[in-house]
């Protein structure tokens, strides 16, 4: 056992590392005049034990393939993480004093701008789901023997996302995953619910099937032994429930409720604090040893273009079906592609991929937060994860999507069953705010194919694009408009009806594109020519075509979307032409919808051909 | 014990009710040609036991004050719920055949358009948090002796929100809350993780401190006994873990994985199914008895105007602080107002209210989903709940906000710490998509006060408005612009700088309003007059003033916001003037931001006075 091997000298050396981490956390936050030193101090012994005794990693290359991974889920303890990497030698300790400045990537909470951060944290309860993706990748896909450590706060352990992760980690026997809860008893504004009820924590985690070890989080020898026990525990994940004290090491701060998120004032008080910590340094010349990762190589990922689209003009297929077909083809074409589902795979058609590539498919069950977090974990391992569920249910994971956007994670989200056109299931199942929430995030590509050919090609484009992509897919079958040779660059659009005499341009996508085509026919029969644009790329948007079309059609645009009125396709169009003085009219769903038949609802909620024809007549009057 | 009292005749009568509920669920979904009969059949005995033996309620008045409440968290079993109320006599059984049509409010999933539904369900894992609000209201505020029953699915029990709720319900000893899990073993696309591992369920719920009873969910006598045991269990909530079979009662459907969300085909097959069920009807003339609720009255809620704002022009106060002051005053003025926090009350300043009105304040700890769900529960009891957290963390609860919007719930959300102007904490703590996500939901009022006076009055307006309201509040202190006599109607705006020669109108709110005022001064010094609008109401928006101002300033608008570019204040303005041919330029945060000093970040990310001046010069060139 590692603990037996820990000499007094080694123990002292580790304790000194912990003290050093405390000193640096206090000093950096003091210099920044903001931050969370007390939350660093409670976890300093845990982090010192991990970084300087337990973990195998390359301190000069945090992304080394087989390195153990460390995720600081309690992201507000960032100074502790930064101090650990500085102590490990990745960068000069003097950089720590740039904490929280615009000039440094040592931000208030960790982001992957730093090479040793896999995913941004700071919104609590996100580290464990990310750890699942990383651990599952190691266990089931890349067959690497590294371990994944996730350090959580006790306050954050109430976040439901952790319990989604707990269930999924148990289900997949992730014995290469080790969570540590820094049970320091104090939240931001109150003691935590369970305070130091360590048996209460044990009952919860054991109840969820984890191996749970209660340990004194300030006893480094005990921590070493506990991590060793964790590594020897097979078939299930382990959690260390570490009893600690917030602000440990500083007499004025320890276990005090008044020190959350407060730096020690700069000057005399900081010096006093550092003096108190310095006195705790143990004698002796013991040094720590960082265990190197085992050598590992991976076969190169294979990647080829998708075969031609199997769809012919005039076929009938739902875009969600075409996604499923394309995704299965993508599985063969690109060995890095991974799929994630939350028990709707027979509705989103990811079941096709899942059956063919079971070891690259995570059935995550009904836990959307964990699903998106795990996807970000896979992405941090170089995978290209596709996450598919009903568009409405991505609202459940919006905070995870937000943090993935902050992390500029390479995840792909596919939201099916959008809009009132799903019909009978009613408003709870209708994705009507998905464009708003996805397009709000900088850098997220938002795609909205109308037919199967376009869907097929956009799935390929999404996989090839480095960064987050959202694809919006519908439930009902629609007619295939494009032949297999058609191309759909991200940021493009298709002008599918036009003449020299167009009175107005209709911009649509998805079911409303077909309504626009119906309206086109009806208007044509009445002698009114209109232009129709298939806006398959919402972000980025084809500004040039929109402006040119508006200019060619008397400066009039009519947008139609199966989405709520704010933040949707219409607003994206408005924004693109806003400096042109163009008149834009939006048709969108403006009230809470209702169950009913798809066609009936499209008409009833004002986004059908009838409404388009009426609006057109009104506008051109 | 109730079970002892259950005669054979009564048992038969209850069993017949269950069979009847199955018949009606099959018939209605068959008629609708969509829906989830198998998920109704597994829970039919549970629902029959509750509605016709256990619950005390008025079948003609579902909103009777002291009625036991029933929440169908597994909303896809809606036909079962509808059948129970029809059997209870609330409406004719013939209405059940209008299921899922536009003409009926018996939608695919329940919504509060129906008088017996407190909150829309159908997005899984939301019933229990809502139940917490209702149970806590009964226990701590209104002191009613009704009980709250929440029927959940086994698949949905993985949703983390349930475990947030489990922890909070235990913390507050909600022994008037009873959850039932219909453990029917089968999800939509796969068996559930735990299948029929009933002891696994027990370990989880017991581990979370609940009284857990494993029961045969098709044994009505056992169910009656279990509900009785639940009612007698004091000091903690109870969960019934009911082992059931999906499709129970129909030989071709029972325990089959191929019957999720599938109606029995209309015609012969439906008739066969109904015949099979009809044969299960027991002999005898036993009847069921619905227990009436105990009488109860509540003192009328007080509702008065707030005292004058304590702020004077020129004072310095953050809008989050002013919210805290107003909210405390509101607590005195209106006894229906309730507060909810997720361990940031000393940052959002709801601690003032919490200290003064502890019995109307739920410290929910770090569990934002449960917090919003519980707020909707309070609202369903006639309370006016204010939920405050960092705006960024409302993304965690977006699905709950979405479902509250579908429910047209009377909850008020206050998001503090918006935008890059929070500074050093970095992007994870910056609310930059909150306007997009809130304004996308139809009917949600979105308010964005810039100073303390406006904040104070808008908190009052939010309380007086019937429906969902979101108030966006900032972290840094700002100068008070308005005197206590100023009024701020919802949907209004303030033109705070104007002249006859304005070259352009700047529209802003929050920190950017002050940047606009700085830019105004700088431009004025350079001989350029601009108009400045304080757009404190984003939805609804003051379209008339925006259009009039645009017309008066050469058709030029410049919007500036501490929010991402898509779906924010700028897009709301664009949408309001879109039919006018006005030119609108948007300044907003267009990339993932970074830690730094607030002023520095406002400037760096292009929303400060410097950018406003530059943009103005560019536009008017």
TrEMBL record, chains A, B:
It holds the Pfam family Transket_pyr. Keywords: Calcium, Magnesium, Metal-binding, Thiamine pyrophosphate, Transferase. NCBIfam families: PRK05899.2-5. Its EC number is 2.2.1.1. Its cofactor is Mn(2+); Ca(2+); thiamine diphosphate; Mg(2+). PANTHER family: FI06132P-RELATED (PTHR43195:SF1), TRANSKETOLASE (PTHR43195). SUPFAM superfamilies: Thiamin diphosphate-binding fold (THDP-binding), TK C-terminal domain-like. Homodimer. It comes from the Bacteria. This is Transketolase-like protein 2. One of its GO terms (molecular function) is metal ion binding. Residues 317-480 form the Transketolase-like pyrimidine-binding domain. The gene is Tktl. Belongs to the transketolase family. One of its GO terms (cellular component) is cytoplasm. InterPro entries: THDP-binding (IPR029061), Transketo_C/PFOR_II (IPR009014), Transketolase-like (IPR051424), Transketolase-like_Pyr-bd (IPR005475), Transketolase_BS (IPR020826), Transketolase_C (IPR033248), Transketolase_N (IPR005474).
